[in-house]
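tokens incoming
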């Protein structure tokens, strides 16, 4: 009876420790999101020049009247104090209102949402390809460490880690799409183009992840439990899967969450190169005419996706590894 009560007590302590760690991580994520929103919003007040001039430039208006300028200041609240403008802006963002595009005059969220599904298709497929590609290559490299498969994987990761994805995309477009006739130059939303663009983005992003997972696998293969298993005659594949892969996954999963924002940020250039109908052209056009509300919305969405992915990965790590709970309290 006493043993059962002790077990229940220990279980309660562990559950409270887990809950406290998750709440603390959630609080950190909320603070990070707030800080990011403030930095994104400061893009406009800190930008050189009068915001009205930027709006008129985005709308291609060369000789505005005084009434037109006054109407713009009133419409976008540019005469209010900064703190009021931030509160109005963040209040709208919380309700899904990112303001109006300076270039088109339409709600920013409407313009992004029309194109976002295509971008999510590209980012989602490239993420799946990245995960599968880096996991497979890291396992092959660790299984045959020091031999030619390992050296081949290392060469691949070093070259791809130093190559921007748009350079790889231009090479594939020139030699594979145009030269070999595989895929389409002008996609029009074709699935074949999606696969090629996602593969380029995913394979390029997987290089760093492969290096990280390979290093973790080799580290844990050299530790005691794996050595004992090998001394008892366990097969190399079994040792790799049971004694090296599970502990090596945690830092790798953290890197996946951190890099998700990079995938979203790298998608617009790939969309422009392959004419994929995502938010790429919309965002790059906004950059060219300094359509600040659209740029703010895109950057904030990418940052929030990064914060959410990091929170999810950290929550999984805290639940899987009790040492992470104590690390959060240290």
């Amino acid at each position: 009876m006493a043993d059962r009560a002790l077990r229940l007590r220990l279980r309660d302590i562990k559950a409270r420790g887990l809950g406290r760690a998750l709440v603390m991580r959630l609080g950190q994520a909320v603070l990070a999101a707030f800080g990011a929103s403030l930095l994104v919003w400061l893009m406009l007040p800190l930008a050189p020049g009068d915001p009205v001039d930027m709006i008129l430039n985005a709308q291609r208006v060369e000789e505005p009247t005084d009434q037109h300028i006054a109407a713009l200041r009133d419409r976008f609240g540019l005469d209010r104090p900064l703190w009021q403008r931030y509160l109005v802006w963040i209040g709208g963002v919380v309700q899904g209102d990112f303001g109006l595009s300076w270039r088109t005059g339409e709600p920013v969220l409407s313009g992004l949402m029309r194109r976002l599904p295509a971008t999510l298709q590209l980012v989602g497929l490239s993420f799946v390809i990245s995960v599968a590609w880096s996991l497979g290559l890291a396992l092959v490299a660790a299984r045959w460490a020091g031999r030619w498969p390992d050296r081949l994987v290392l060469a691949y990761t070093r070259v791809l880690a130093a190559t921007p994805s748009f350079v790889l995309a231009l090479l594939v477009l020139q030699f594979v799409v145009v030269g070999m006739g595989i895929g389409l130059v002008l996609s029009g939303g074709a699935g074949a183009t999606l696969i090629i663009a996602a593969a380029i983005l995913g394979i390029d992003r997987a290089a760093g992840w492969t290096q990280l997972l390979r290093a973790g696998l080799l580290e844990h293969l050299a530790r005691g439990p794996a050595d004992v298993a090998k001394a008892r005659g366990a097969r190399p594949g079994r040792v790799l899967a049971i004694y090296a892969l599970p502990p090596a996954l945690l830092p790798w999963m953290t890197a996946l969450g951190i890099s998700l924002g990079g995938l979203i940020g790298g998608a617009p250039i790939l969309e422009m190169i392959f004419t994929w109908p995502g938010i790429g052209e919309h965002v790059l056009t906004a950059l060219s005419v300094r359509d600040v509300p659209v740029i703010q919305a895109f950057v904030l969405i990418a940052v929030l996706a990064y914060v959410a992915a990091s929170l999810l990965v950290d929550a999984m790590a805290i639940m899987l590894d009790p040492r992470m709970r104590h690390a959060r309290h240290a």
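note: The chain has a mean pLDDT of 79.
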